[in-house]
## 1
Amino acid sequence: MLKNYIKVAVRNLIRNKPYVFINVLGLSVAIAICVVIYLNYSHSVDSNREHENYRETFKVNGTWILNGDPEGVGIAPMPLTTMIKNDIGAIKDAVRYHVKGEVVKRGDDVFREDVAYVDDTFLEVFDFSLREGSKDAIKNPGQIIISRQMAIRFFNDEPALGKEIRILSNGKEFLYTVGGVLNELPTNSTFDLDAALISIETYFNHYPETERNNWAEWVDGVFVQLHNAADKELVEQQLAAYLPQQNDANEQMPYAGFYLDRIDEWAHNEKYLRYGNFRSGMASSALWGLNSSAILILLLSCFNFTNTSISFSNRRLKEIGIRKVFGGMRSQLITQFLIENLMLILTALVIGLVLAEMLVPAFNDLFWFVRLELDLLGNFKLLAFLIVLMLLVAAFSAIYPAIYVSSFKPVNIFQGNVKFGSGNMFLRVLIAGQFIITVYNIFASIVFYQNGKYQTTMDQGYDIHQSIVVPIDGERDFIKLKNNLSQNPEISSIAGSRTQIAFSTDFATFEHKENEQEVGWLQIGHDYLRTMGIDIVQGRDFEDGVDNYLSKKLIINEQLVKDLGWEYGEETVLGRRLFLDSAYYTVVGIARNFHEKLLFKGGDIRPAIITLTPPENFRYLTVRSESDLTRVNDKVKEQWAQVIPDIPYTGYYQSRAIEVVEDTNYIIDRVNWFVAVISIMLSAIGLYTLVSLNVIKRIKEIGIRKVLGASVLSIVQLLNRNFAGLLLIGAVLGSFSGYLVMDWLLDIIYAYRLPLNLWPLLFSVLLLVVVAATTVGAKVYNAAKVNPVDHLRNE
């Protein structure tokens, strides 16, 4: 029996090639997109789960209360690990992880690399595998474990084990032997281990001024492994005993408590922590944006599948009638149509997987921080997802057409009384739903494109395009480089700073109206504001020979003046004093507002203070030039090689701050335009089937109207009437939903964005109308022009 069903199904599908092509095309594209987006979702959700004991492993974070609101802090005190390991019985092990940028030498080659200082049992808590050497190398102070990438940079394809490298740290040189090479980590690991691992005991040799028991010393992360994950709350309560020591040593940042974040969840929370120094996963807004786009595309393809299945079944009405007359049961008809639809779905699945294999590399190129792999045999979760996906598609797309088409009565079929699709509200809802989704997707792509352009062209409050930033190490590097660069006539100014706008920010707090006020803190040298193009709107800049870091002078931005409730005017602002960092500072100037962070959410202009810092604290040298920056950068690099030959040059353009925004908006644009194009394509297919159904249903009516003298234009208007109504409903609801969703979504993503206006909505609707007219115009016109004899010859 099954063999007969399959034979009939194959014959019918071969006879209806357009039907097969339309359904398979739409569904295979949707399946491919869903597979890729599922892989991305799984990649994000499974962050850090490569470690066997991830359920028992937690990061210790702190909570800081600012203006009455709790805020997570990612760093932890240096001595905390040793104490809790000894004092808290529920803790199986505790380890530290602290990264420093160091100069690493291999022969005459010099590299700037990250060196992670960790406790000896770090590789026992975390399951990082080695391709060479032993994990015990971390316990040997004379050995170092390097990443696979570092091994390639240092030694090319040669074995790295046993070879020597030198680390230049804090002005001294230390020799180490390579005791191990790490395998490459999955890209969803929060640890970015393109770095060297070395015992934290060597940290105190590299930096002897660091006191290992000083609670004012910080590490990037403290991790604990519990005997039982259920003891999490108990451990958090016991950690409260260390708050007095923490807060006595850090009065500027008193903790309200410690808490534990399981490492797979921490992977998504790190980005929201103050001083969260680890790599974070894909933002939740991006993750769910991609998920929702895939769901919308799948819905569109399912709508099309249902419509085309019903539309092309019109050719089989007599087959259905004859089957029923000769005793065929409705259940047999349902089974026949279900098998045909399932064969189409399975065909679409195979083609969809092939398309997904092609889309994965493109997705990886677009999202450079993601590396997806389509592995059907080794990924059981993916297989389970595909099974569930196919069941959902079959339930939504195959069952209804089979039941609907098999419901016709033979007497109505042979009398020609079957009202095929007439009054079927479900089909109308599907078509209107297609229009809604398409209008929304077009509108979203336009709005994101507009805001992306706005982000890259808006005023940053400083001159972002005329500066080169060079990381340095203190006063000695600054003086060497400045003395040489000052001879270059293309360089208009040079300044040093401890912090750098957009790349290295700090904060300070002071009490105001019985609340703690947090402000951004820019610590600079003379001429920095002029070099960066930050205007002084009132008062004066710091003057060389008059002001220094001991004079306790202060410049504040316009936003801080507003937040403090001060009025403009030299008598009301200039000369006022603020208690900051255990001393009173006098306001000598007001700077124009500037963006010290990226323009995404959290990058709002915040109140800021600007103070002088001693040259020994300089970590950046900033060069300003009105000439070609590429040429100037080459000159700076040459001078660097002459005066600081032992350290690699790592200068960059200040405009890199906006390049990060451009890259992110590029990704958003490409994803949204892709979704919009696919939506338009699927909607065009849906419109074609709608008109085909309408023409088939009214073919004899068209012939009679033409015999009675109806014009082609009047028939075209008649056939398009229902379609136009559904298009209007879809345009209105799509525009309304698009406006509400985008207004909410833009507020989540951007700190500053354009207000929504009418023209993107109008353009979205107009584009859909043009596509609709192009898609169905010829079909309707040809149907209206056909000779009425051809329509009525069977009567």
Note: Residues 1-47+281-418 form one domain.
## 2
Amino acid sequence: MKKGVFVVAVLVLGAAAALVTSGRAQMQPKPKWEVEGRYAEACQCNVPCPCNFAQKPTYGNCDNTSVWQIEKGYYDDVRLDGLYVIVVGASPRGERYVDTVGNLAFARYYVDQQASAKQRQALEEIARSLNAAYLRIPLKKLSADEKVEAVQIQANLTADQAKVKIPGVLDFHTERLVGVDGKNPIEIINGSVIIEWMPRIFAGQSKTYKYSGPMSWEYSGRSSYFARFRAHSDMASIRAVSGSQH
């Protein structure tokens, strides 16, 4: 075989091998996962938080904390029952959290310290997918200043209250609000953000909301939300964002 023909043949075979390898990579099945449990969120806005009505934050920006208490769930063959993941972040001055994702002042993912390495990775990936689906954005970082930390989480979420603590970092106690009848909770219906994995949201008010991290704050009597959530990898909103890498 002439040298030129040999070189061309090698190049063609190499390209074909690369295509086969790429095809195999693309054919790798995406992880299957499902989680359900209770959710609580707190911010520094007055009750009710104006962000849920497409208005600017009460005090200029969002100092936000989201807590997922996973009652049962899995990520492929990894069980996630009884674990927690918490996301804390702050928006730039004058902006809503939901409008400035990718440009937040900071973001921290706190995953349950009692989880194994595989469970921690699963918690992080699921929290990223839920944030992306909630905010209608491709899966990406919330901020240039973003970290994932494994911490001790002490928490108890019920339908009526949420008590969450990360020693030395977060102290969060909020209660669900009831309406004028004194017994039925106040539900936010048809707000500015519709969440497939969390269709019913109930208003709450914080008793304590303290955080010490890249930024520090201390609030009480401010807005919070309660909900039950159920999400899985085949949901339309999850599939819509899971094709991108963070």
Note: Helices lie at 3-27, 117-135, 236-241.
## 3
Amino acid sequence: MKIIRFVIPLLITSSLIYFLSNSLSLGGSSIPPLGHFLNPFEGFWQNAESTENENVEETIYLDGALDNVEIVFDKNHVPHIFAQNDHDLYLAQGYVIAKLRLWQLEFQTHAAAGRISELIGENGIRFDRLQRRKGMVFGASKSLEAMKSDPEIFKIIASYAQGVNLYINSLDYKDLPIEYKLLNYSPETWTPLKTALIQQYMIDNLTGWDCDLENTNALQVFGEENFNFLFPEWVEGIEPVVPSDTTWAFEPSPTSVISQPIAIAGVTPSTIEMPDPDNGSNNWAVSGKKTKSGKPMLANDMHLGLNLPSLWVVMQLNAPGVNVIGNTFTGSPGIVQGFNSSVAWAFTNSPRDVRDWYNITFKNQSKNEYLYDSAWKSTTKVIEEIKVKNGSTYIDTVTYTHHGPVVYDNSFMSTSSSENNYSLRWIGHEPSRLINALYILNRARSHEDYKKALTFWDAPAQNIAFVSGDGEIAITAQGRFPLKSKGQGKFLMDGSNPAHEWQGYIPMEHNAYQYNPKREFVSSANQHAVDSRYPYYFYNGSNEYYRNRRINALLDSLNNITVEDFMTMQQDTYSIKAQEVLPLFLDSLYQTSLSDNEKRFVQKLSEWNYYYSANLDTPILFELWWTNFKNILWDEFDRTDLVLLQPNDFNTTHIIKNYPNHKFIDVAETPELENLTQIINGSFKLAIENMVKWEDQNDSETTWANYKGTGITHLARIPAFSKSNVQTGGNGNTINAMKSNWGPSQRLIVEMTDPPTAWFVYAGGQSGNPGSPYYDNYIDKWRDGQYMELILMPSSESHQDQLKNKITIQPK
């Protein structure tokens, strides 16, 4: 593809033009030294790659390697690493990851640590302050200590770091990724702390959302009875990960009852930025009794932000005692999600409230002491020096209580009318041993190995599905969960009251678990892990209610399942929400008052099959109708003086179907008393107006794909390195859970044949270099529901017809 040599420099040039004209897209960063940057022998032109470099063999000599390592790249640019010991295996993994994704590798640690201002200037200060106030490095340091306490685990982390640094030290300016040149900085030495920060980055992404302060506001505004009606913990019709017929064969740990679970201390005007509450996934597994081959099968698609480079890199790791393949995080040794010859495993987020806020009473403005158990307790101060590119260092003082860091205070998230001092208690501040768990999973041979690995899995909590070549299937809602009494942590708590402390942790052996169930499948999609019969208090404000029921219905109905069936399921865009809401809406319309144009849309909606297909316009109208309906119905929540969340879609539907005359079925801002039918009709007319307005403002065809506008955005928000308006169907509540910049970041299907067969795709490409043909080459396949075979090679000499490049590492 010789054209690559001309197109890629043009692409980079267009990015440069945009960058120079719109420096704020990179936070106001300074222009790089143009002579260096534009030099054809070492500047950005050197980042262009082509497929002409394929089918080559290369030998490199590395200090620290103990023996020869062979790395073969297959036709999809997947590296298969073959080493003769663990040290060389993880050294080579670090080296290859750095070679593929160096800038991303380091940028994520800068983001996790609150060091973005060093790269982009003063526009990064607020983000950096928040990261430091959340205690990101504080938590990562705790995990690093846990890693150091296990010599075998720390050895592989150190080997990985050594591999990354060997690659970094081999680079000249011309070899640096384009982002370093654009932002005018150089990579740092990789350290084990950076691996802990990558881990912290994911813990924050998957557990960093809560609604405690919004709940507290709603409780004060609406009262306890109304709050419980609007935000119930359990609603009829949920299907938990572990079904209700489970018998809990254990005696639960006792908890103390809290008489005052909240601290009423005024309202909170606004809350800190948090990850998308929809961050989650789908996974399911079926036994051989339901498959055509008679072998168990597993599927997984993990829903996260859609970014370039992708979060994921696919690779194989082979050494004595381990031969595993799948998705890995940039910056962390081992395979996160994948399979070996004996077992396969997959993840979805298991939502649980593992972040709590405590109202702190300081003795005075010095914040040196705070009230606890009727006495004054000393705080700890951490002076955070935020270095700012082309600016003065910003000094922020973060106060720590025994609960955790004080995130909200008079210098951060406070207003002239309100001073809030809120300390954060978070599972992310506890030491994590995820790498121990993954080390065992990578080498697992049995269900017992899976159970052993899970004893180390603490955060982020995950529903971990499992299949084995022996025919077993299982799923566990696994994590380290705080032990709480009913209602504890649902609202802002009193930081001075010892009774409000976490009461320990639920024993991991009491976590919800299912093994070889009678229905012959297990599944999860971020719904409730359990139902109300589970003997421990369970709460989360972001449980999923639709995808899980669709998955279960399909799996229940399917037999003689094939890989193609699983592929079809992962692409499924059927909406149970639309199925449950739209008939009621249509039945409530005043048919005689509709215009001809409105009747035309009603006819379309009446004929719609509830699939969010990319080429349809009907899903646009339904979504506009539903959004307008909720905004009118819940106008009480539209406040500028405090932050509130609307009731979720599932409970909104439950209320309008079962309580159509409830006092909340009204428009609060009008003196008249509106009924449900009036709100449905009014919101329909608004939806038509919104749709016409969108059509007038957009030249593109009126389709769901164009309206939704799914984009895959470069991590530094560089438009020329991003992919816009990817033509996809789906919606956040369908199995193919696609939103504008969020969705199934990867897809994997494994069938436990001998050897296992597997198929994968993700929203990106293996290379982090925008000038590489492997930067985004998977996206079209991902968009179109296509997959590539993922081959677990027994040796570097097998599957020669699939291989492209080969690197041999030899000791120096």
Note: The first helix runs from residue 4 to 21.
